[in-house]
Amino acid sequence: MGIETSQAGQSTPALTTRARFGHWLYCITLGLAFGAILTFASPPVNLWPLAALNILPMALAAMAIARRPGRVYTGAVVTALGTLPAWYWLHLFLFPVTGPGYVPLGFVLASYSGFFVWLMARWLRAVAARPGLARVPAILLAAGLWGLMELLRGDWVLGGYALYNVAIPLIHGVAPLASIIGAIGVAAAVGGLGWMLADLLTRPESRRPRALAPKLAILVLLVGLPAALVPAPATTGTRTLRVGMLQTNLPQSNKIGWSAPDRLAAFDRWTSMTRQAAAAGAEVIVWPETMFPGQSLSPGWTAVEKQYGYYLPYKDEAGREQRLDLPRFAEALIALNVELGRPLLVGAIAADNPRRDTTTGRIASDARYNSMFLIRGGTVEADRYDKGRLVPFGEYVPIAWRSPAIQNAVVGLGAKGMSFDLGFGTRDHVFELISENTTARAITPICFEMTYPMHCRDLVYRGGKRAVDVIITASNDGWFGDWDSGRSAHLLAAQWRAAELGTPVVRSVNTGISCVIDAAGKVVSSPGNEPLGTRIEGVLVATVPLATRTTVYSYLGDWPAISLALTSLGITVIGIFASRSRPAKADPRG
């Protein structure tokens, strides 16, 4: 188990100051090792096989802490602090966006590894007090508890933040497993592997065949059995959709201070790019998230703008006063749709029940959403997709969002210039896109929604049946600034969703990376179909084979991983409390 015990009734002397310092130095070094592995496995270095070793340092820390006198939580905190440099480095792009939120984010992310170390160290001490608990394999608990950490961080706590899940870089090597157990399941397997390796390194007796066999059996259960269930690769079908992706290159600072001349110039470029996509044979053309330069694409909003003559005043290059009529953009997009005869999927703000506020003179609404609109047949269709999972601290403040006054008081922690008046969407409309040879059903999760596995699963599979042939995701990755590794990490998350759901993904992204991901999670890169690079403006037109297979993950989702996680937590907590119900046979350590 990786723990030393003393004789019953004996006590171990307290650590000297020098020994305590050495112990803490060891713990913080292991935290640094965890961060180094995560950093080098992730973009831009991309030594992705290292990710399989990510939990080894955390396991070694838990074993070392359990063997030492003193409080367990002290060693766990010190270990967690060692991970901070990596978290801050990987999220350096956030500093200019949300300086006040940058520092606490690092501590929040570090706390999960610290919590894992604390739980496992307490379990080892519980085993020392009640040896009968050793019948529960620690490797299985480690797998379940690390899966729990990824679930807590990625989906359950403060809205969820799943970038840099330890499994994410492994998509390059374990994509077939993604279709069975998903990113959370693979992360749990990494946790189990890390614990087994730590046990082998610290206890020579664990290397004996009799001791090693059960651990290998559990790894086979966690990885080998799912691997045996991997479905055959999807066959190439005749159903395809030719999609044009616009990649705008609008720095976020420009969009926040989007002047009327800037809007006009950007709109002219993007309409020209749309014509280019149509000329290349695109059957549907996609604009990135919120790149529409008007206020809203909701037809009712445009009608109010037109009725009351809303406009933006500005001065031209000669210094003359000019006015930009706000309905102009929506009307021009509709005219472009008629001209090209191609449906346009455009990211824009939506509004329910827009109307003129007689007190302020502004346009008010019951609710506003980050949405995707379909412009077809010379009209903006009423059915739209509204973003259901907003970005924590970027589009809303968790917990505080229920009180606008409180949310506004802490809005400085969020992304500068982002509107915090957006609602959680409930319209998850599936768009039917008619091509030459088929009708393709498309769902359009927006930006950060692609980091939520179960959310995407619920969009693609409904009532146990596939409801979608292709995922078309529009994103604004201008928030990453010059930090291209963040853009690559966002792309990796989309690759996981494609592999988990056996569904191709089309990405249209401001500042990149726009591309097509096949149903096995691989970025398509063939002549004439290469992904667009970062921070460039461009057009990508690609023929996308539509989904032809159903995955195990699409049926089960993360529920196997959730069951393992909650069972492991329950066993650990019961064991810890049970060990405190009578005097320990080993020295007391916590």
Q: Which key phrases capture this entry?
A:
17 helices; alpha+beta; 2 domains; 18 strands; Nitrilase/N-carbamoyl-D-aminoacid amidohydrolase; 590 residues; 45% helix; disordered C terminus
What does this structure look like?
With 590 residues, this protein is α+β, with helices and mostly antiparallel strands. The protein folds into 2 domains: 17-230 and 557-579; 240-389 and 424-547, Carbon-nitrogen hydrolase (Nitrilase/N-carbamoyl-D-aminoacid amidohydrolase). 45% of the residues lie in helices and 14% in strands. It contains 17 helices and 18 strands. The protein has helices at residues 17-41, 56-67, 72-82, 84-90, 99-129, 138-156, 171-202, 209-228, 252-256, 260-279, 299-308, 327-340, 404-409, 453-460, 484-501, 552-556, 559-579, and strands at 240-247, 284-286, 311-315, 321-325, 344-352, 355-356, 363-364, 367-376, 379-380, 385-386, 431-434, 439-443, 461-462, 465-466, 470-476, 505-510, 515-517, 538-545. Strands 1, 2, 5, 8, 9, 10 and 18 form a 7-stranded mixed sheet that branches. α2 (56-67) crosses α5, α3 runs antiparallel to α5 (99-129) and α5 (99-129) packs antiparallel against α6. The longest helix has 32 residues, at 171-202. The two termini are 18 Å apart. The relative contact order is 0.14.
